[in-house]
Each structure stands twice: as structure tokens, then as C-alpha cells.
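User:
Hi there, any thoughts?
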Amino acid sequence: MYIYKNIVTLEPGKRSGKPCIRGMRITVEDILRWLASGMSFEEILEDFPELTREDITVALEFSADQLKRTLYDVAA
């Protein structure tokens, strides 16, 4: 299992191995899609009280880092 700042976890048997938040079944993708749909941090936290503001922020950081790696790999 790979841990990103002890918040983003990758487990092969959970959500098809997608990056999840603290071992829960909530994925980084879920958070990105909620934000893209217009949900605010506050709305996400209200709907999913098991999440923290830090979870959402780290999901964004993780996604940005993954995108950066992908772009650099393609450019190389």
C-alpha cells in the first residue's frame, strides 16, 4: 500500500485499486468530481462528515502531482 501524506491510500482490493482517502471507500476521483460539479468544501464535509478539510486539500495536491508526473513523462 502506498500512502501519500498518510491520507491517500492505494489498496488493490478496494475501489479497484483507485486512490482512496484514509482507507475509506471514498476516492480522490469522487472528491474531484464533487468539486467539479460545483460542490463546496463545506457541502462535501456536510454530506460526508467522515472527511476533513485536509482530506480534500490533499486529494487536490495528489491529483496535481499525478498530472505533473504524467505531463513530464509525456514530454520526456
Q: What stands out?
A: The chain has a mean pLDDT of 91. Residues 2-75 form a domain with the Arc Repressor Mutant, subunit A fold (CATH 1.10.10.10). The two ends are 28 Å apart (CA to CA).
